[in-house]
Known about the structure:
Shape of chain B: elongated
Largest sheet of chain B: 2 strands, antiparallel
Low-confidence stretches of chain B: 65-83
Radius of gyration of chain A: 44 Å
Strand content of chain A: under 5%
Number of strands of chain A: 9
Number of helices of chain B: 3
Largest sheet of chain A: 5 strands, mixed
Order of helices and strands of chain B: HEEHH
Strand order of the largest sheet of chain B: 1-2
Mean pLDDT of chain A: 81
Shape of chain A: elongated
Oligomer: heterodimer
Distance between the termini of chain A: 101 Å
Helix content of chain B: 40-55%
Structural class of chain B: mainly alpha
Amino acid sequence: MLPAPLVIGTSLAYLLLLVGVAYWADRRAAARRSVIARPSVYALSMAVYCTAWTYFGSVERAATGGMWFLPIYLGPTLAMVLGWTVLQKMVRIAKTHRITSIADFIASRYGKSQLLATLVTLVAVVGIVPYIALQLKAVSSGYALLTSGSAVAPAHLHWSQDSAFYVALSLAGFAIVFGARHLDTTERHEGMVAAIAFESLIKLAAFLCVGVFVVYGLFGGLGDIFAQARARPDLAALLHAEQGGAYSWARWMGLMVLALCAALVLPRQFQVMVVENVHEDHVRRASWLFPLYLLLINLFVLPIALGGLLYFSSGVHNPEHFVLSLPMAAGQNALALFVFVGGLSAATGMVIVETVAVSTMVSNELALPLLLRLRLLDAAHQPSDFTRPLLMIRRAAIVGVLLLGYVYFQLAGDAYALASIGLISFAAVAQFAPVLLGGMYWRGGTRAGALAGLIVGFGVWVYTLMLPSIAKSGWLDAGFLTAGPWGIAWLRPESLWGLQGLDSLTHSLFWSLLTNCAAYVVVSLWRAPSGREASQALLFVDVFRRGTAQTPVFWRGRADAAELKRLCERFLGAEKTRELWRGYAKQAGLPADQALVPDARLVQFVEAQLAGAVGSASARVLVASVSDEETLSQGDVLAMLEEASQLRSYSRALETKSRSLEKATSELRSANEQLKSLDRLKDDFMSSVTHELRTPLTSIRALAEILQGDAEVPPQQRQRFVDIIVQETERLTRLVNQVLDMAKIESGHIDWRLADIDVRALLEKAVATTAALLSDRGAEMQLDLPDALPPLHADPDRLLQVLLNLISNAAKFVPPQGGRVQLRARGDGQGLTVCVQDNGPGVPAGHERLIFDRFHQAGGPTPGGQGTGLGLPISQHIVAHFGGRLWLEPPAPGAPSGACFCFWLPWHPAFSGDTAP
Amino acid sequence: MSHTLRSQRLGALFAAGWLLLNFPLLGLWDSDLSVLGLPLFPLALFVIWGAMIATVAWWMESRPGLETPVASEPELPQVQVRD
């Protein structure tokens, strides 16, 4: 047992820590460094699904039914598998229409129906009050167990002495701090979400701790627990699926359907998943992280249940409290306290989010319409700023819902185990699923259909589940359960129309969802949707088809801009309104101070902004009160949609046209650039060629003129001049030949003669041909060839030309003494690599690319003036023609100096036909 | 829409999960056998559940592969031209 002040002090400290986390997150959000803008935080906040019911009730269910606690978590897993499509669509719709709650969502879909919103709110309140009672019960009985050793509180305390009453009040206080401190037009609560995510971590950690403690501290591991359980027949049964009854599998599936619906439509799940969603893409991470969280928190449920049953063999301890009583029995009070804090986390998280969600609904869908109807909100009666009264309504709603929960707890708390209360609640809110999901995917659903579905489904729920549970608590004569009302047997609430064999929950779920869906579909099909229903249906079902900018505006009538602005000021505050007005003007491209035209788009804008604060149904009523709206028929809606889609297709066509025009322009521009550069190249080429031609011509002419004009030249000198003239003429010839070669290659007019070449023979021929040149330069040739090489398919003459060019280039640059040229060849599976290495000065840095340009001669004019500057470009072209490449090997650090030119050729070149013989 | 492939896969997984976690397929595991000391039925439930989560995680986190349809082109021998 623990002293009460310690437990209370720890709990309060923990709750204050949560407030601290929320405050910190709010501060960060204000500084635009949001902590909740992460997918993992989003997923953790979804774990608000795991309440005190998970924490205490799952163990109880496992202790009585084995694995039957699990369908409640398998359902959400399956729901999240579809999260990518369904949940993302919900988020997109909610963001587009500034939806603030599930009541708002459903009402907005069916033509912004006030009646529907009110109905959904009422069902939600009725549905969640038992659930809140459950949290109070869990916390107060946990507290009683920790402090007195017995979970049963002393019977019938006066409320002023009851711990649950104070738990309820303090939770209301915290919920107000988290959710109703200020009014936000998007209903987003950054601090609350951060605190919930934090709580999710704490409750998971605490549950895992107690699981590990039970399995490894009290027992010798999982194997030990299961072995001991198998030894006892009553516990061995818990390890099996079948828990009696032929319909038990139907019950299993029913629970999964129930949990699947609940995970999407519970007001708190809707709040954290849809309203508090920061970014649509976070759904991606959450769709597996949230199920993973559920898996982890359920991992030790069965071992703890079995462990408790084995440990307390007498059965005096309630399985609901095994997570607390096991550590306490083992003397681990600190662990028990931590586990209690975990349970407190689970309970507070649920209560806070649920009451905030419900208070939003109550204020927007119940209180506000009432005030509007009673004309209490006319400008004459009310202060111009309405944000404060709205906040007060919310706070009152939070306190009210919690007090209702407390009353329920006082009245019914003892009659039912935690788990049963939870399931009754789930079944009530599951009635939202058909109208919600149907509305998202079926355009035909109408307001009347939704109303019928909800009323019938909820009615059947009350009759088949709620009334029996009240009767079993002893406030009603239980006779009608067994004999049926007025003795009519087929109206018995737990076997309606004589359906027997199902347990009461599955039975109720089956009939309520069946009649709900049937009423929804049948009544919807009764008549065609009205204009407003049709327009909202289009906006919801096709939300992914159009961007926000292209949303058609379904509104026609007369409005006054000043009136609209005044309306905004009353509900959103003056400053916020100014900001919004500026934003709207900016978006529309108007000067900020200009009076806005009260067109349909402005009306829609104002209505959307108000919807964020007061819900779509109230917003519509408010806007209608200051404007003159024409009623639209379904035909009008379709015409407007047609118009919008025509506009859209026009603008799309225009976009396509302008894009293709842009593309054509850029293509033309680049073609022009290419032409220009080719022209420049041609000019350069011409001037280079004429320059190259002029040099030998000049010397020939000079020498010839000397010979012509001076007969006295000595014969020896004359001979030398003539030799030079012949040499220069040869150079001219060579130059002209190479220019012709180049031109032919480039224009593709060259004749390629293909043959299988013996590479060794070709290389040796090249060496023999250049032997004289090399010996003139006093250089030595080294050959490094493998013994055998496969034949190479290429043009032998052209290849020889490449080799001669590379070797003569090398010969030109070797030093006068000790010159050395090395010719290397290597073959591999793909092709042949040949390298020509010299020991000359190498290619100067920065010229590595330039040497492949025409007429570029490395290091200025070559010794002996032999170069034409066309050799390398021609060689490169030839090699490239055979699918190979020619390159200058970068000098390896530490290697001897000199240039190394290599080329690679495939053994069998792949040609483009035209040049093949 | 680039989401189509992923949506279809998830739809298929939903159907598979629904079948695997319900009668009669789930009933196949309901036996007295145990694996490494763990009873088969609870173990099978958690393994199937975990496998579903892992599959969703895999599809959700491997973004680039799924958003654009992959057209695998035959690999051509690459000719590098250094000039």
